[in-house]
Amino acid sequence: MVPLTLTERGALRRIYGISAVSNLDLSIAERQRTQSLRRLAEGFADLEIAVVQIPSRFRGTMLLLIAEFEHSHCCYFGLGAALNQPSELQMKLWISFLIS
After folding, report:
1. 64-80 pLDDT tens trace
2. Where along the chain do its domains lie?
3. Is 60 left (phi over 0), alpha (psi -120 to 50) or beta?
4. What is the dihedral of CA 85, 86, 87, 92, to 10 degrees?
5. pLDDT at 39
6. Is residue 31 within a helix (H) or strand (E), and if so which, with residue range?
7. Where are the beta strands (DSSP E) in the chain?
8. Contact of 89 with 56, CB cutoff 8 Å
9. In a designed cystine with 32, which of 18, 79, 86, 94 is the match (CB 3.0 to 4.6 A)?
10. Of 11, 17, 40, nearest to 29 (Cα)?
11. Using CA atoms, how far apart are residues 9 and 82, in angstroms rounded to an integer?
12. What is the per-residue pLDDT for 92?
C-alpha cells in the first residue's frame, strides 16, 4: 500500500459548514452564521453555512467549517460553552483556520 502524501492542497474552491445550537434559541445559531459569513465574504465567494438545532443534555453552540481545496478538504470546528459569546467561538475558529 502506498502512503498518502499531500504536498499541495491546491486552490480553495469553497467553504461550507454548520452553525448549531443545543438547548438555546435558534437565533443564536443564525447570528453566529451571519457573523461568520460576513467575515468569510471578505476573501471567499462560494460560502454556505446551514443553521441547525442539535439535541443534547447540555446547552451550547458549535461552528463547523469545511474548506474544500483542489486536492483536499480541511475541517475546522469550535464548541461554545453556555457562558461564551458566539463571537469568541468564531475568533478561536478563525485563528485556527488562518494559520493552517
Report:
1. 999 898 888 888 888 87
2. 12-99
3. left
4. 100
5. 81
6. helix 26-41
7. 12-22, 47-53, 60-69, 73-80
8. no
9. 86
10. 17
11. 35
12. 66
